[in-house]
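Worked problem 6 (solution included).
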Amino acid sequence: MNSLGINKPKKETKIVVAMSGGVDSSVVAALMKEEGYDVTGITLKLYDDMKQSKEGRQCCAGQDILDAKRVSENININHKILFYQKKFKSEVIDSFVDSYAAGETPIPCVQCNQTVKFRDLFKYAKDLKADALITGHYVSRVQLNGHASMYRAKDQSRDQSYFLFSTTQEQLDYLRFPLGEIDKSETRLIAERLKLNVANKPDSQDICFVPNGDYASVIKKFRPESFKPGKILDLQGNEIGQHEGIINYTIGQRKGIKIASNIPLYVVNIDAEKNIIYVGSKECLEVKKISLRNLNILGSKKEFHKIVNIKVRSTGRLLKAKINFLENFADVEILEKETGISPGQACVFYSKDRFGDKLLGGGWIHKAYNKNLSTKLTT
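Solution. The predicted structure is:
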């Protein structure tokens, strides 16, 4: 059994490494080559016609493809580029735009992993007869009794399991994540030791197709009608201001409301159908229950009979919760205080065992029931 858990000599083990052009995936490709595996690097070209950010800190764009190609040449592995712009536009960008226009707060990175990166790249790797698909994600993987489980990374400040909650069991059994047990600082040191040209390249910061975090420009390009002005109401239904389009607002937002008040005002609800923004005090953002749709469950639902941990945003803390399943839906009772949960985000499930925080799957937040809001504003 080799280091990837495959019963073959390393030189006879064919693997595909997803190479974004960043330091993490480049290090993974170089380490696999150094260990003696038969490595093919694959880079996805996902979009064009978008301006690069000033720092160039995005993935799957022109410079990143060149960086991935250069790394591949330096470490002497085969490298292929897949042109997935149409797939990415239809399955990620369009979904992102529609979700924002509906008053939600979407997470396109999850949908990208769910579709073009894992589903389509998974199939391509299989067609190449590869034994495994390797990525530079910071998650841990444990294999027991013939099946793999995913865990939060050792470097929890870099953990990416939240973005991978939609990974299927079949995909997880095929995937490998060599960086799950090391810190990001160690990854940089490995890149320097291997003299990779991307050793000091900054990490990606923005959503790749949103230059400099300017969501509004992307929405305006595809859904200009989303900038229709409308009313801002308080929780008693009084009009207290005007907005310039609901896409300029997200749940929990404070800046940019531009309304004089004796107390700080936050966006507490967005009614896209009526084009209304509701604002209120911070207390009105507390959420005790959420409803989920489009679930992905890893393992057995028996693990949910007890209290589990959840995350409702990628940078959020683990929260204790109870899960009630209803076919492909679920109601989640949050047992700790949490605020500013928005439809369109993901709720991801974890349980604690001897290996760490095990990913149990998750779902998309459909409704958030704010503790101090009337029913008519939250349904």
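Discussion: The longest strand covers residues 356-370.
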